[in-house]
Amino acid sequence: MSFSTQRDGLPMKIKTAVLTISTRASRGKRRDTSGDAIKEIIKRIDGGVVDYRIIPDDQKQIQWELKRMAEVVKADLILTTGGTGLSPTDVTPEATLSIIERRVPGFEEAMRMTGFKNTPHALLSRAVAGTLEKSLIINLPGSPKGVRENLEAILPAIPHGIKILKGTQVADSEHRFKNRDAR
Questions:
Q1: What confidence tens digit (pLDDT) does each residue in 130-174 have?
Q2: Terminal-residue alpha carbon distance, the chain
Q3: Which of 29, 61, 82, 86 could bridge 142 with an S-S bond, Cβ 3.0-4.6 Å?
Q4: In this structure, which topology does domain 15-166 adopt according to CATH?
Q5: Whole-model pTM?
Q6: Kind and range of the H or E element at 105?
Q7: What is the distance between the alpha carbons of residues 170 and 32, in angstroms, rounded to a whole number?
Q8: What are phi and psi of 85, to 5 degrees?
């Protein structure tokens, strides 16, 4: 899978858009360390950031940005951080659900299970994952620790999911864990 967008003179395999949802960060009152964590982790799957925004907790603005990233930027992967909890201002899941075409609950389940190993509060996450056109959208928590735990749990499945979403032929061997013995 190769694309025309370049990073360091080489084609990027996964065009990634990062959307940080935080009213405080959008006003410059705190640094976006969660977005920084995403940018670092996606390098492991040959991901490169083609779009990055920080916006407030506003459902209509989140919807607009997600659509723009999928339809205009044509990002393969859109990762959001923030707004997935129970606070009245946490509206990222609602915004995402309103624009996705198909839900991908396996990512949601894996992230909650991984988080639950470290804290029972992970059960309060309402993060969702789904597709819009040829983009995979995944909501992540708003903390750097939560981003790392959740994204690292699902990272191995993301490139394969994007290949399938784009209609790329995949080999049977890609459906197995690479580090396990053949049975």
A1: 999 999 999 999 999 999 999 999 999 999 999 999 998 776 666
A2: 29
A3: 82
A4: Molybdenum Cofactor Biosythetic Enzyme; Chain A (3.40.980)
A5: 0.89
A6: helix 105-116
A7: 36
A8: -90, -150
Helices (H), 28-104: 33-41, 59-71, 92-99
Calpha distance 61→45 (Å, rounded) = 29
- The alpha carbon of residue 102 and the mean position of all alpha carbons in its chain are separated, in whole angstroms, by 15
- Token pair, residue 176, equals 């197995």
**Integer Cα distance of 169 and 77 in angstroms:** 18
Nearest to 95 by CA among 80, 106, 115, 109: 80
Domains of the chain, by residue range, sit at 15-166
Residues 1 and 13: beta-carbon distance below 8 Å: yes
Question: What phi, psi does 7 have (nearest 5°)?
Answer: -135, 125
Question: Phi and psi for 102 in degrees, rounded to 5?
Answer: -140, 140
